[in-house]
Design brief:
Strand order of the largest sheet: 3-2-1-4-6-5-7
Helix content: 40-55%
Largest sheet: 7 strands, mixed
Distance between the termini: 44 Å
Shape: globular
Radius of gyration: 17 Å
Strand content: 15-25%
Order of helices and strands: HEHHEHEHEHEHEHHEH
Length: 264
């Protein structure tokens, strides 16, 4: 039986946890090399000194490999494993998108635990630098920023699509020139998470096409404090999961133009 956030047994586990200062979310789809890095980051260094940290692992496949790695590396931090939100959806909604549902699940856990900050890491970016979770969380916890996006180290020919299309278009449309205006990984405040959760857009095609573009735009529209911070790593996709260029360009362009039309 799937472990959904709406299940009474899971709700009992959340009640037992009580509250948390920081929730660290890791959505995966099966085994991932990022699991151990996330587990260690939850209790080592600056993030571990911020207070109570709870790791939320969301995997719709129910795979135990990433969960086992997280649990081993993250001890003594509690690790909550879920397979989705189980939250009510609109009857007219498109087929469930696991990526957006996982982010929504992490936000919902953060709200229930009354977390001051929520950090979401992307397993497809690769293991990365151990301190990136703390780097993202620091502006939220210390400076009351609402959404913090990462700035990756790039060589001259990396991130061509982002530099040539996404960055200038996002800057022109929404008035913020961000080095990486995509919330593939991010930290946010409890206030921002509540604002994201309370919108009625989760079941729309705009979110399905590009949750990572929609979140920064929504934060800017809501007047939240959006910032960016260097995370000391290159953005390198995990091995064995290449993205077809044509499909990637189509999805990115579709998401951006859909957001442009929505926010005209």
């Amino acid at each position: 039986m799937a472990r959904l956030l709406s299940d009474p047994a899971v709700q009992g586990e959340l009640e037992a946890l009580g509250t948390a200062d920081v929730v660290v979310g890791l959505p995966t789809v099966g085994p991932t090399p990022a699991a151990e890095t996330v587990g260690r980051a939850a209790h080592e260094g600056p993030l571990g000194s911020t207070g109570t940290v709870v790791v939320v692992h969301v995997d719709p496949t129910g795979s135990s490999e990433a969960l086992d790695a997280l649990t081993r590396a993250g001890a003594p931090c509690p690790v909550l494993h879920l397979e989705g939100s189980g939250l009510r959806r609109s009857p007219a909604a498109p087929e469930r998108d696991d990526a957006s549902d996982a982010i929504r699940t992490v936000f919902a856990v953060g709200r229930q635990l009354r977390a001051r900050g929520i950090v979401l890491l992307n397993a497809l970016v690769g293991p990365g630098a151990p301190g990136r979770a703390a780097a993202l969380a620091e502006p939220v916890l210390k400076d009351s920023h609402d959404l913090v996006l990462p700035m990756y180290t790039r060589t001259r020919y990396e991130g061509t699509l982002s530099h040539a299309r996404v960055v200038p278009l996002a800057g022109a449309l929404w008035g913020r020139r961000l080095a990486h205006p995509m919330a593939e990984e991010f930290a946010c405040s409890g206030l921002a998470a509540a604002a994201f959760l309370d919108t009625d857009a989760w079941d729309t095609e705009v979110v399905r096409q590009g949750t990572e573009f929609w979140l920064p735009v929504l934060a800017i529209q809501a007047g939240l404090v959006v910032s960016q911070v260097p995370v000391g790593q290159r953005r390198v996709a995990a091995e064995g999961r290449p993205s077809p260029l044509g499909a990637t360009v189509g999805r990115v362009a579709g998401a951006l133009f859909a957001l442009a039309e929505q926010t005209e």
